[in-house]
Amino acid sequence: MAVTAETAKTVNKLAEQKYKYGFVTDIEADTAPKGLSEDIVRFISNKKEEPEWLLDWRLEAYRHWLTMAEPKWAKVRFPEIDYDDAYYYSAPKAADGPKSLDEVDPELLRTYQKLGIPLLEQERLAGVAVDAVFDSVSVATTFKKKLEEVGVIFCPISEAVREHPELVRKYMGSVVPYSDNKHATLNSAVFTDGSFVYIPPGVRCPMELSTYFRINAENTGQFERTLIIADEGAYVSYLEGCTAPMRDENQLHAAVVELVALDGAEIKYSTVQNWYPGDAEGRGGIYNFVTKRGLCRGRDSKISWTQVETGSAITWKYPSCILEGDGSVGEFYSIAITNNRQQADTGTKMIHIGKNTRSRIISKGISAGRAEQTYRGLVKVLPTAKGARNHTQCDSLLIGDECGAHTVPYIENKNMHSVVEHEATTSKISEDQLFYCRQRGIPAEDAVALVVNGFCREVLQQLPMEFAVEAQKLVGISLEGSVG
Amino acid sequence: MTRKPQKTKPTKVKMSKKALLEIKALHVTVDGKEILKGMDLVLNRGEVHAIMGPNGSGKSTLAYAMAGRGGYEVTKGRILYGGRNLLRMEPEERAAEGLFLAFQYPVEIPGVANTTFLKEAFNAIRKHRGEGELDAMQFLKLVRQKTKELGISDDMLRRPVNVGFSGGEKKRNEVLQMAVLNPDLAVLDETDSGLDIDALKVVAEGVNALRSPERAMLVITHYQRLLDYIVPDRVHVLAGGRIARSGGKELARELEEKGYAEFAEAAA
Amino acid sequence: MAGNSIAVRPFVEQFAALKAGLPGTGVPWLGDLREAAIERFGDLGVPTPRLEAWKYTRLRPLEKTAYRAVGEADAAADAGRLPSVLGAAAGHRLVFVNGRLRPDLSTPGALPDGARIESLRDALASDPGALEAQLGRIGVLDGQPMLALNTAMMDDGYVLRVGPGVALPAPVEIVFLGGTADEPVACHTRNLILLDEGSRATVVEHHLGAGKGAYFANGATEISVAGAAHLTHHKVQAEGSGALHLATVHAEVGADATYEGFCFATGARLSRYEVGVRLVGSGANCSLTGAYMMRGDQHCDNTTVVEHTVPDTSCREVFKGVLDGKARGVFQGRIVVREDAQRTDGNQTCKTLLLSDRAEIDAKPELEIYADDVKCSHGATVGAIDEDALFYLRSRGIPEAAARGLLVRSFLAETLHDVKPEPLAEALEEMIAAWLSQAANGEQHE
After folding, report:
1. Cβ B90–A450 below 8 Å, yes or no?
2. A309 beta partners
């Protein structure tokens, strides 16, 4: 059974308030200096009261990071990042936040309204200090209790390091090693936050887990690290919502997500990413350099990624599946929308190792304004993956003649007893369709949103209900100004 | 691509004897070529007129120019709709003001369910008229009632707009949309094309059910066949970009017998 | 530089030693062209998999083997009995041995007025100025080290020029025989096909090798198809089993003109067919078709880039590969649609049939699109022989080996059905049958 959205929000607010106050008082006293060094890594680890092994792991990552080159193969352009010109452990900017909605950028508020976000929620998202309304402590308790009853662990990763060190130690870095790529390595050295989920054998998680429920919806750390383990026969659906725009300068967001599915387990991971994309001229916006990877370790396990990427100035992201267990299944469903000056290079990797492993990729890319978008995907079938099957469908839609849409699939197949199929199309939004809609009375911008939502339908269907509705609205908002 | 639609005040529908549609000396150019060369037409509420003519005489051009499709440039003349200048309005505004075009080739919109599409259109029009929008339940009730009246299966509502529809289904879908959107002026562009006789009868029945004293219809067709089922009050022959001849319903039959040969010269 | 700078050295040294004797010596623009090219080659280095364009193909032979340049003696080698893929249908036939024209083996015949075929050496000797505008100008050296090497070292090749409105009534057959030398040699042949407005021609290149020894055929072809002209350019690649075969083709296609490229390959230890087509006139059209059958430890790379630069151009690409043993196939196909190239129609298909557990295919079909009013698609599939189809054929009494052969042929059929002239199509059928019979004789696992 699932909790209602309203309950979820209440819990969220509650949890968040608690967390925020704890966090702020804790840290304001000792914000780390700018820049990155071994001392900073030690400082972070010390602050978090981490065990020795984790500090060592972080330091190894940091030392390795120093030797690494920035990945350059993606079709995105941005100035060199100055890693010494950033804070790796600093107090949230709560104190600088607006005092009321009157002080918030009206443009932002208009977007919230279009998304149908309630007023209270709007205040929270805009970073307005709100008096907490503690009228439903029981709800939070019920929620926590329900998870505890079935043995599900759902907590901040720093808490998990303290409370469940054996699980964290066993799995952290097992899917994305600290040496994976420059961004993931940086994350390994300096991660400060993130979620930890463990579903015990045979348990079907009784509700959809979401960062909504959890702490830091605002001022999310730049370097989150999420680890989800579904033990044998377990099931969990996890929603990651960067569901509303956050205002910021060009800021690096280098997160790592690791998923592990054991025998017969299933993990469904959904993301709606709507970080601040920068303005129409391409000033500001988030650099979203994220490493997400799932390991289907067990037989007949399944990992399914669904993403709706509409935000960020630059997206560099390839949620992947390593299909190790025989009969395991990987899925990747993606909608990426780029408008104005946004750039996105996103896709997936499906690595078939086990016998009879299956993967499915559906990618829908929409490019408008002067945006550049690339689908980049790898399907690799190793000699051991007898009976492997992959089907990939990549469709791109161009709106306007100043944008670009590119498709770069890599197919590497070393097994004759496998079938790999890839299809891709690129087309423009059809004038006939728009005229037909308008002749029926639908205004031009709504007609674009309608047609694009239709184009994305196969992916939208994969999202949990509340997310799907929001995602549909986002499609319309993201494409505003792309016609006319 | 398009200009922002200009917001116009919703207009009260006047029930006067004044013509609903007045086309005066209309010249339309497509791709630099003049297709309509001074066409005139007057249509009152409650009337059904047929426009007949040989291929390439400008029948579809007329339909698209009325609906405001891009690329159909009106170089001279005017179209008054309810006394207002139709040509100043954006396509969606014309629709909201009660102009409906049943397309010769209805367009496919993959992934968008027919009901979603219709609801979007229906509520956009209501909003334009300053009426409240219907929620999903209310709307579904309305649509179900229409499908029942027209003998259309509900299955068609769930399917994506026109995708995988047979020729007959597409045309019936146009009639369903017309029934739901309840226009003042319906323009039927070659609604008979691609239909066998049974499908034609079904579509014609649907159209006839929508005939009313408040509504005018303009039936564009190449063949007289359709007019056996949708009997017009007046028949106009469009040839060489102008109305070459007008008459009663018997004119259609005459054309069927003699063909358009005599108008070929007019066109030349 | 992501390239290998060490493997560059022997070639740079060869160039320094040989440049005085290369054809066209003393022609200033050609000397400059060669010098600039060898410098570019030195800068780029020999490609390695660190270059995205060479991700799946490593030129190991160039790291391991020392190839010397061909000399007079190599060119005069005994060619034995040379097969023809056209037979009597070949109206005009030129034979190159180790990269040099052999007039004694060639039957150029009489071309219609306004058309001319000759060797590069002859063309440069008689009127070098006539080639200045095209030679080394159609091919673009950016990111093309092997083409740069060819430009520096080009030694011989064929030059076909067809004047405005002239249609060649019969196809031109060009035979390249390699592998007759005792030690590894490198030949850098350079061909030029220039079709004037409204002209038509069919060229069939047949590359074959004697013996099993190592040699390096580094060919390059520059092609210009002017407005409303039509070029059919077939290639049969049956090099010797020790060969390293690189072929770079750069073509420019004008308004309403057509370039049809076709390549059938069964030979060479390592081969790469790299085609770059620029569609520069509205209404230009190109089709690229490839079929290859590889086994043992052969490596076959097909790389194409089709660039749509103006409105209303189209391209069709179909590549099909059959891989047995430990063979490795590579397909990299890129369709680029530039900002102004509205109403581009592009389609690309890459299909691979794996016959062995150890065979491998790496495919990278790419779309790079900057214009919105386009229709582009690509598809790629990889799979084994359909067991259901196999069973169906066997249940009708067809022995397994024959049934497999039938299914392989049916798989390749799509690439062959437009091949003309007829004798070529028949020759290809025979080559396929021969390849299959080797497989049936138990050679499928190496």
Report:
1. no
2. A273, A336
